[in-house]
Write a structure and sequence with these properties.
Distance between the termini: 124 Å
Strand content: under 5%
Order of helices and strands: HHHHEEEEHHHHHHH
Largest sheet: 2 strands, antiparallel
Structural class: mainly alpha
Number of domains: 2
Keywords: Membrane, Plasmid, Transmembrane, Transmembrane helix
């Protein structure tokens, strides 16, 4: 009997010590030690009580036998109750998604749901590899522009505006321009947008590409989610063209508009122009030979 009291005292001290001395960031460890101590106390007294009743079980009436069974069931429920405290709770992480364009995250998920491929153990994304690049590489020396660029250039319908206020008529253009203005304001820059528009021959698409390349370099902002705001082919091309111009990427989408913008801004390397002129001369000479 004295051993039972000694062990009980030890585990009470154990439970109290770990229950009130460990810091809050070790709350799980604190609860585990505290309830482990209480569980040990219950086990000690349960063993003692069951042993005492077992020795004299035959001498007791059915009433005491019922108490014996109830005690066993009570111990099991108590241990289960303690286990619910020791069990680590589910971790719920609540985060706020970074969104530069104010587009609802659920709408973004729904918009790109057609790309999602659900596998048994993973989720894959469907991407058209050939549509990602505006050139085809056949060897280290042979790299050619895809002819689809020139079809895209013919299908473009550039938007001519008189001033920047007219950008408000197109939600995509308004959103991009507002972001550019917001970034310039945060950087305390004073910009004459009307003059830049004039430099770009009052073409809205060229103006937005030019402004984006000039003013957003210090900021890391993606354009992918803007696809939701594009309502026609030219607007979709604008998003890709900004990426191609700003990041020097080789995205297929936007390559037509980017190439047209590069021609307008005289950004095509001179050697490429010479090769183009040379190939044109060869074609003309071959035509003359055929005529002869």
């Amino acid at each position: 009997m004295s051993l039972v009291f000694i062990l009980t005292g030890i585990f009470i001290v154990f439970a109290i010590f770990y229950g009130y001395t460990l810091p809050n960031h070790k709350k799980d460890i604190r609860y585990i030690h505290m309830y482990s101590g209480l569980t040990c106390i219950v086990i000690i007294w349960s063993i003692y009580t069951l042993g005492f009743l077992s020795k004299n079980l035959d001498n007791y009436t059915p009433k005491f036998r019922f108490i014996y069974i109830v005690l066993l069931v009570g111990i099991l429920f108590f241990l289960k109750y303690l286990r619910s405290f020791v069990k680590k709770p589910n971790l719920e992480i609540v985060v706020k998604q970074m969104n530069y364009w104010g587009i609802d995250a659920k709408k973004i998920s729904q918009f790109y749901s057609y790309r999602r491929i659900n596998k048994d153990d993973r989720i894959e994304t469907k991407v058209n590899e050939l549509s990602k690049k505006f050139y085809r590489t056949y060897s280290n020396e042979h790299k050619f522009l895809t002819g689809n660029i020139f079809y895209d250039m013919n299908n473009l319908q550039l938007t001519t505006i008189k001033n920047t206020n007219e950008l408000d008529n197109i939600i995509l253009y308004k959103t991009i321009f507002n972001k550019i203005q917001e970034l310039n304001k945060s950087a305390e820059l004073s910009v004459d947008y009307e003059e830049i528009l004039k430099e770009n021959n009052f073409i809205a698409e060229y103006f937005l590409i030019d402004c984006w390349c000039r003013f957003t370099k210090p900021f890391n902002i993606g354009l992918a989610n803007l696809d939701m705001l594009a309502t026609n082919f030219t607007q979709k091309e604008l998003i890709g063209a900004i990426d191609n111009a700003d990041l020097n990427s080789v995205k297929r989408v936007g390559a037509g508009l980017f190439f047209k913008y590069a021609l307008f801004k005289d950004l095509i390397p001179k050697e490429d122009e010479e090769e183009q002129n040379f190939s044109s001369e060869d074609e003309n000479s071959s035509d003359e030979d055929e005529d002869f």
